[in-house]
Amino acid sequence: MIFQRNVKLSTYSNYKIGGAARYFCAPMSADEIIAALKEWRKVKRKNRDIFILGGGTNLLINDGGFDGLVIKPAVQHLSADETKIRVGSGMLMRELVDFAAIHGLAGLEWAGGLPGTVGGAIRGNAGAFGGETKDAIFEVASLNIKNKEPRLMKRMANECAFGYRNSIFKINDGEEIILTATLQMKTGDPAVIARTVAEKIRYREERHPMDYPNIGSIFKNVPVAQIYAERTRNYAEALRKSAFSLRGLAIPVKNDPFPVVPAAYLIAQSGVKGVSYGGAMISPKHPNFIVNVLDASADDVKSLIKLVKSQVKKKFGITLEEEVIYV
Q1: Residue 60 and residue 302: Cα distance in Å, rounded?
Q2: Does the 78-205 domain belong in CATH 3.30.465.10?
Q3: Is 165 a known active-site residue?
Q4: What is the CATH number of domain 211-326?
Q5: Which candidate in 13, 89, 217, 270 is catalytic?
Q6: Any catalytic annotation for residue 217?
Q7: In this predicted model, what pLDDT tens digit does every residue of 139-175 receive, in sequence order?
Q8: What kind and span of H or E run contains 186?
Q9: Domain boundaries 4-71, CATH class
Q10: pLDDT per residue over 96-150, tens digit each?
């Protein structure tokens, strides 16, 4: 496989931010990935590494780019067999959601409007509206590239160590490339499924700053259990009332899919909504989004992330955790 050289990664980022990859390839199968890895061993130099790129939807690529090989898996497969769907990791989530709706297969309606690839959604156990990617996973096939000889692996859902925006593939960062997944769906009315998907898309368009380049939520919502380290009576009361008091403020609680405090609320109450730095801005529409309004750099975004974390910590004593992957 011949690598492309000095490829602008901003082209592959929803943020439209980032320098160039020294080497780049988009293999379409396990065999092509293996061939690329063999070729890479011939050109690899000291301090040059491999990065696996998905849809670029929760990715902040540094302005200096990546001095190594970027592999963007482009496994394009989508088929249905009764209530199971088999999908390649390079397929876009919107393609998968549309396919499921057309075939009357329910279980992914929550993902209406979700950007990015299937592989990325599995790796980060993407979720919204109380649903998560793991809920539909039956089996995941991946390629372990840690050792000299790549190894094909298959895991059932309960072997994938799925957690809140996490999975075994994220834990073993850079060691595996997701190839395909089999999803276990439920039968449903195609019209009802399509209508529910459209509602989720409309919600995102109305509530999220889609008019500027962004990578979705910057910070994870905060589990209530993290704030109440022990499940005290106060914790139970917070869940029952869907709110609790913290430093004199009534803090809302929602299910995502377990009880969490919305990061957007904490950010808004910390007084940084609408603040800008360089070409980046904390969205006034949804403060858990930092948008690229004027040719922002990665450093502009990082400065705002640092500001948000500092102000939320100062006001609430809570340390926000980024969803962002830094490259």
Answers
A1: 9
A2: yes
A3: yes
A4: 3.90.78.10
A5: 217
A6: yes
A7: 999 999 988 889 999 999 999 999 989 999 999 988 9
A8: strand 186-187
A9: alpha beta
A10: 999 999 999 999 999 999 999 999 999 999 998 989 999 999 999 999 998 888 9
